[in-house]
Amino acid sequence: MSDLEAPHGSSSSCSVHPQGDAPFSFGMEPKTLAFTAIAIACTPFAILIWWNFFLPFLFRIFSLTVGSLLGWILRKGAEGRRSLLIRATAENEALFRESKAQEKDGASASSDDESWENIEGSIIGSSGNGEKGGRDWDGIVGFFHPFCNAGGGGERVLWAAVRATQKRWPNAKIVVYTGDHDVSKENMLSRVKNTFSIDIHPPTIHFIYLSTRHWVLSSTWPHMTLLGQSVGSLFMGLDAFSLLVPDIFVDTMGYAFVLGLCKILFPDMPTAAYVHYPTISTDMLDSLDPKTPVGSQGVNAGKGVGFKGALKRHYWKLFASIYSWMGASVDVVMTNSSWTQAHIQSLWGPRRKQRGRENPIAVVYPPCAVNEIERAVEISEESEKRRQKYLVYIAQFRPEKNHQLILQSFAEFVKTGTPSAKEAKLVLLGSVRDDNDSRRVYKLRLLVNELHIKDQVIFQLDAPWSEILQWLGKAFVGVNGMWNEHFGIGVVEYLAAGLISVVHNSGGPKLDIVTDVDGEPTGFLASTPSEFAEGFEKALSHPDPLSVRRRARLSSKRFTEEEFARKWLSELEKLVAMKL
Q1: CA pair distance 313, 321, nearest whole angstrom
Q2: What CA–CA distance (Å, rounded) separates 24 from 33?
Q3: List of residues 6+ apart from 321 with CB closer than 8 A
């Protein structure tokens, strides 16, 4: 018998385990096997512990050593500019006072001062630091708003916050970090006055011009845009701090990574964030899955399927974790609506609690032109006769504004053939920012033709504020079709003008704006074309529209500039108290 042949009756040479080994031992000793199994089982828990405890601990050590050292170097390097700024402020203030003393007519200034004194009086002393906390603090407040000349709702928040801060702490210096190199201080303040009717005190405000704003443009990051822009904001933050280190740092544009960087470099610097919308939210994550209730909503609806979709989901979840880590470092957090507050609380809240951040996340509604609209638009029995069956939608022509939904809803409403539907006209009021918006408008015009409602739809592009006020004065209904609108300044303007609102049943319009007054409605909520069409009919055929208009205007008073100033100052005072 050959040596290669196995004896008759012997076991096969292809045995799964060596003779004498237990099944599934993989050739290891029992102790080794047990330790290996325990190690594999504990790996997920080890990763969680590493991510939630050891990594933050190492990050904290890094912040207190390398980060603080770099911060000290930046602070030393910017001392010269800081001294120049303080001296320039004193000189400009002296010149300003001298020029004002020579003016004979100071009636308008006195009236303005009186109104702001009322705002200050409502909160002075709440920090427990007496009059010094109220008036004498003379530090530097840095506002991080790289696009401060944009002229939108976010900029209205910035300038209203700056003016309130100036009035509350007249000796403080205000610094705005911006990338608008082509706009001088004089032109910037002039536009603020003309656009928002906000007077900024020139001597105490200064602009620090950044050269790194291109790092946060979406065009710079065609792929992985969320992460790219956030990383790019870190370059802007370093740029800002290398030029000037303030005493208090406030982000009013949503750059949470810059706030995190600030705490790494300057652990003791008080920071604040005014969040218009979360960079990422749980609703965004859920919208990737077409099987979820929101899987058909938003610009990324249902894009989480397949291999690329799975990668996108994991990428978004990782980014959300980093975003929550950065946001948890902020001392004072303000949001523009209850919807934003809930999402920021879910993302930042747990880590803020771990870090001992005691200040609750506050809702501070953005300032809206309620008083101006109230003066311009009459609500009375006489004005009711001048109202026409116009439905207005005030919104930029951006994809998320969902103009298609409103057009489809209006077409369905017109097909009902009711008396209200025959008389109704839809007016789309919005700005066109670039070629992408222009192409979007062109496609909407094509859709209007396909839906056979061309004669009942009006496009008003780039309409000035004066023209918008005219439409608000003669329209009947205000419309909003965006899913999860974070706040909805346009909807507040509907209320202030007394329009009956028909808005999307989500976000800020649902939770904060179109709410009942004394148990009676101020408008209608909808999600589908059929629901919107039904809402249009209810609004246009309401038996007592004047009562709805009066309730709407009363409700809009929650969103005045005065209310914003009071709430803003009560939050910022917490940061000033940390410096006293």
Answers
A1: 12
A2: 10
A3: 51
pLDDT in tens, 124-133: 444 444 444 5
Phi, psi of 210 (to 5 degrees): -95, 145
Q: Supply the Cα-derived Rg of the chain in whole angstroms.
A: 30
Rounded CA gap, 365 and 105, in Å?
35
β-pair type (390-394, 425-430): parallel
Contacts by 371-376, CB closer than 8 A, 24 or more apart: 371/560, 371/561, 372/197, 373/469, 373/472, 373/493, 373/496, 373/497, 373/556, 374/496, 374/553, 376/469, 376/472, 376/473
State how far the Cα of 274 lies from the Cα of 155, in Å rounded to an integer. Answer: 12
Q: What is the phi-psi region of residue 367: left when phi exceeds 0, alpha when psi lies from -120 to 50, beta otherwise? A: beta
**Residue 514 confidence (pLDDT) above 60:** yes
> How long a stretch of residues is the chain?
580
DSSP letter at 514?
S
Which of 429, 431, 444, 520 minimizes the C-alpha distance to 480?
429
As given in the structure block, the two tokens for residue 68 are 């603080």
Q: How far is CA 347 from the centre of its chain?
A: 14
∠ CA 121-124-126, rounded to 5°:
135
Give the count of alpha carbons within 13 A of 259, CB side only.
30
Structure tokens at 326: 């950065």
**The pTM is what?**
0.80
| pLDDT tens-place string over residues 286-331 | 676 666 665 556 555 556 667 777 787 888 888 888 899 899 999 9
Q: How many CA atoms lie within 13 A of 442 on its CB side?
A: 6
User: Would you state the structure tokens that stand for residue 511, as one six-digit string?
Assistant: 């939770």
Q: Give the C-alpha separation, 358 to 352, whole Å.
A: 8
Q: How far apart are the C-alpha atoms of 192 and 468, rounded to whole Å?
A: 19
In sequence order, what are the beta bridge partners of 173?
140
